[in-house]
Predict the structure.
Amino acid sequence: MEMIIFDTQQELDAYAAELIINIVNEKPSAVLGLATGSTPIGIYDKIVESYNEKKVSFKEVTTFNLDEYVGLKPENDQSYTYYMNKHLFSHIDIPSDQTHLPNGMAQDIEEESARYDTMLDAQPVDIQLLGLGHNGHIGFNEPDVNLPYGTHAVKLKAETLEANARFFASMDEVPKYAITMGVGSILKANTIVLAVRGADKAKIVKEALTGPITTSVPASLLQTHARVIVLLDREAGRMMG
């Protein structure tokens, strides 16, 4: 596991974007695993900046997102489909049929999960971008006694609902379920980039990266992966020595 602590969020964003851009330039048909939330926004801004400077093209790239809320239409401004279009896809030259998110509106979530896993098996992810939840979740894989291997529906924990409430008008509007890639699917990526910022994440960073490997801290399973690059700002990394 490689770990880099940055003095500023801007430096972290630029480094993470460069990792992704370099892979695309080395392999134009690269498969990217993408994340949402507040952490990746600056990274996507840097990618768009490089695209506008004609330093990279995404015409042959395929993307798979980690997750989507169950019950939110793609045009809902809190859906992750909307988020990805707003922050990345609409600003670069990637064809829309090469971008994939789980369908949170699917009538049969199990069938949708199987469909997503089939696509992931056919196009293995070259680099997977991850954030880290306050309770150690990656994707929407919440702490539990058992963690499903593949894509699945999950009931979101109270702490996750509280963390996500800031994006909604009220707590009642926060979706209670999501469909997410499983930890097994995440760990199949060739390279994993875990980006974390903020003093409120320092404790869970230490627990996930140096504590016991346990399903009660899903991110701790990243310790079993051969190539994980951890990018922390100074606050998130303050307990890492």
About this structure: Residues 17 and 43 are 5 Å apart (CA to CA).
